[in-house]
Fold these 3 entries.
Entry 1:
Amino acid sequence: MKSKKHELAERRQRLLDQHAEAKEALHHAQQHQAKIQDVLLYCHHVKERLSTLDMPNKCVALDALDIRVTWTPSAPLQIAGRIPIDAIVSATP
């Protein structure tokens, strides 16, 4: 009888642990999804406004995205940048 009780207690604890892990994974996935939505919204706003900017403001926008263009003769043009996710996420209400 004790071994059955012990076995059930262990199984219950394993299930509780799995539940806690699943809950934490869901929370992380929801946070990740929220960041993705923030980035998509940011990109949409940038796209909408980019065509209306004059050249100095376009330079400011490209600088904010840390856009770097590298050209080497006889090599493809390389364009790299980064989206400031931390600034985007902290700026959203």
Entry 2:
Amino acid sequence: MIPIGKSDIPLSILPQMANRHGLIAGATGTGKTTTLRVLAEGFSNLGVPVFMADIKGDLSGLAQKGELAPKLTERINQLGLTQFTPDAFPVFFWDVFGQQGHPARSTISEMGPLLLSRVLNLNETQSGVLNLVFKIADDSGLLLLDLEDLRAMVKHIGDNASEFKTEYGNMSTASIGSIQRNLLLLEEQGGEIFFGEPALNLEDFMQTGADGKGVINILAADKLMQTPQLYAVFLLWLLSEWFENLPEVGDLEKPKMVFFFDEAHLLFNDAPKILTDKIEQLVRLIRSKGVGIYFVTQNPLDLPETVLGQLGNRVQHALRAFTPKDQKAVKTAAQTFRPNPKFQVESAITELGVGEALVSVLDEKGVPTPVERVWIYPPQSRFQQLSPAERDESIKKSILYGHYEKEINRESAYEILNKRAAERQVPQRTAPPSIPAPTHNRPVPPPYETPAPERYYSYGGTRRTSYSRQPQSMPEKIVGSMARSAASSIGSQIGRQLIRGILGTILGGR
């Protein structure tokens, strides 16, 4: 059981129904973060790994045991929690910028053109060009790992657009330029640090501690939130990777992983329909992989109805009805719950206190229970965030420390394209000088006589010997000289083609 809170009776989420996803909603300051912590601790105690983003910097305290402060003791007594004990939980800290946790990286290829178009804020035409950039890179056997690779590939295609036009279609200079400008903007926002290797191994998220508790993975997102589209796309990419890599398992006794998506509205703000459709499909299908998604947002209207309909377990904190839009949100939230004859749901939503919520979960048959008005349990871990020294100590004690901290920069599109450009700038090697023709005054030996005295000449730094043989007429001499020059030129050209072909095979195979 994953305990949530208590009214007349305790209320919990059934482990076998936890992968039916959920929603934590409510206005700022009503207790969403506390609910998030309580659910994360409940899943961890059950041995289920958790991932969450720490936007305000106040979730790091999960790694330390809580203290029985007066307010906490008062809540414990109010709820009659006779067996409550403070506790700490195993935590892995992550940070896209590598400052407050293990560096969390992805490669350009893994992110893909659809999500990158979202990050770069490209229109439909520009997104189509970016798709062609990925296609040409794949066909050419060029790896796109970091922003340098993508910039080099875009420049290469822009400089040689006429060569690609017949096979791949027209790629306008304006679209190429727009992509390049947006890549520079993304680099300034920290994209150069985020894209690279070693990329995240999703198995590292799905760990348990020595005591059998599921590891709580906390992503430091206070700085990442300054670029909200990158934040939303990064979390969506993580979900997509789990969906693509985890096997189908059906309904399990408990989830394999639980994912909390805080500030979920950022995922859908101004999102193109193709991306919204992908998210809906992902939410609908990923539960069969044993992954539960819990969206955390201020207003249920932040989520599309198609996604909202997939969320079976719901915790609704207070909403304020100050404007017509707020009143509509309250009414919508009330209508999504199964009614309870004990109280009016719509009125209760505006009357809830801090730490109080309306809760409905799925029963063993998958049917939503009538909504209950409950007080959320207090967390067992520490409310205060870790100090920089405590966080640093926790990071260095992690079994992952040292792996993601060492950046890898292997040969990819940027290095290969630069190498090819350098090769084209090297001037072609001239053919070696030919042997000077004999003068007319020199006596010609008779046929089948002993060869004339040997002459020496230098060819490629090696001392060679030549013998005069049958006399040649002037036309024969000219033809012979041309033949030697042509043979030397052909030999050099074939050699270059062979070398280039071998490199192409190696790179393509890589």
Entry 3:
Amino acid sequence: MNIVLIIIGVLVVFLFIGAGVAFVAGSGQRTVDERLEQFVGGVSPTEIEEAVEAAGKSTDVADRLDRAIANRGFSGRIRQRIAEADLKLRVTEYIALQFVSALGVGVATYLIFGNNIVMSLAAAILLGLRLPRIYANNTAASRLRKFDSQLSDTLNLWVNSLRSGYSVLQGMEAIATELAPPVSKEFERVVQEVRLGLTLSQALDNLYRRVPSEDLDLVNTAINIQREVGGNLAEILDIISFTIRERVRIKGEIRTLTAQQRASGWIISLLPVGLAGVLYLINREYISELFTKDSPWIVPDVFPCGWLIIGITLVMIFIGLQAIRKIVDIEV
């Protein structure tokens, strides 16, 4: 049996054993963490960890690893990405998912492309490690668009609640009860955070951290100013609601007008990759000349010309796609 397959099999076995041990060790603490997350999901992750640690309940291996890397720069970025996508993952679980994804992509590439170790490693690093990040970014973007589309109706309900005599917090409770996720879920978190002792300003800042919407930032600024200097909050929110409705309408029109250009960019970018895949299935020997470590060489016996061609092609495809996306990305 091929030694590479043996090594991969051993790594997979150890990975599943480690995941099983971590699951068994942290099953009780996970229940506590999930219940805390329902109420203080928007509080700073560091504050939550310190509170749990002070209570003497943090015995999970993943929690200890999270605390160990809490001060690392990449840990903060991952936490922010997880919060924006509303994924029920910890930093260590997200990192483990990246390695599992890289291993799966590497093994699949190794089996499909005829035991090519170099291509398997390249696919694992360039694609496998990025798959969880791509998924999280797409989920966060979709969630943000849905939140923005609901924000105008949210403000209308909030304005009507204030004019009916409700307080700001009671208006948020009405939003959490009457509207659909993600708006209802996020405002419910704000209400729970205020009940647990945070100020309204801190709770709104946590909301903006989870949903970095420009329209929401405008609402938060208006609320903070009104609480400091006074004024008719219902009238202010009504004006902001009208502005947001117009922005959403204009964004929708722009997105409709640029749909063809965005689709053309993806088609042009994916066409060379798809054509290469079809040619590989039809005539494997012809396409394999690009992958084999053979003459002509860029660096003798080290770097063949085919690798350089593939690299230049991928870079040019990426630059072209980014240029098209930049052209059709019109700010409102």
